[in-house]
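DM from R.C. (forwarded with permission)

"hey, sorry to bug you on a friday — could you get me a structure for this? deadline for the figure draft is monday and I only need the backbone to look sensible"
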Amino acid sequence: MFGWTTEDWSGFAGMPYLGVTTGTGPGIDGAILGRPGGENAEMGGPVMGATLTMGVADFDEVAEKITAAGGTVALPKYALPGMAWQGYFHDTENNVFGVHQPDPEAK
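My reply, with the result:
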């Protein structure tokens, strides 16, 4: 309906994970994943709803700014081997969001 494309990134994520691309160049890209914790989210449990992930040029620089502004680490930086660096944070209202730095050398 929206002209988006999906790509199976399960091999990078180690779980069912479909990358979603909304177009070429900058856009609102994301992913669709299962609900590993059941129907309703448990506080401190796995993410159960939509999670926004922002692409950045320097993961570490952005992570430092997030924590300086009162955010906390939800899932530390990890490699999506051969693809990117990824991590998740809580904002000051405990919403989860992701940070994604493309890097084909990530291991």
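R.C.: lifesaver. The two ends are 36 Å apart (CA to CA).
me: no worries. The first strand starts at residue 5 and ends at 8.
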